[in-house]
Design a protein that fits this description.
mainly beta; 11 strands; about 45% strand; elongated
Length: about 180
Amino acid sequence: MKSLIFCFLFLLAQPLGQAAECELSLVVDHIEWRGGTRGGYNVFESGEYAQTVHFRIRLTGDPCPFFIGISSANPGENRRSATLGADRVEYWVYDSIRSRVVLKDIPSATENELIRGNFGPGETEKELSFVILVPAQQIKGAGRYTDSLRITAYAGTPQNFVPKDCKTVTFSIPVEETTE
């Protein structure tokens, strides 16, 4: 609930008159991490498994540059972990598995820690993606570990922007039951 209130207040704080012709909306679903040989997280699996998350951004109005910030539901915290009671499973949100730039949100993000793009004439939708990686061999009890990610779409550039849409999605990691 705190995340939804933050997103609402964040969007209300938009300066008037800046990039008003460009309206952006996010289309993103809740995320269930799938990795390993059986789909869930196996604490004894030795390899890393990355999952690419696809989402869309839609434009109504005039074409514009845009960027996407991704943060935890707790503003200012970039360390990520999904929880089940007091237990935590750490994870990372990257731009891609190859470059592994950790994605963040304004105000702590640098330009390369944001997903950036541009709508050209006639374009109304773009598919974008990021990668979630759960490091191997975190010994945790079985169950569904969850976290909230806040994804925000901004019109403009990181130096001159207007927030346009904000979605809070649930991210879950199913941890498989194992026997030693």
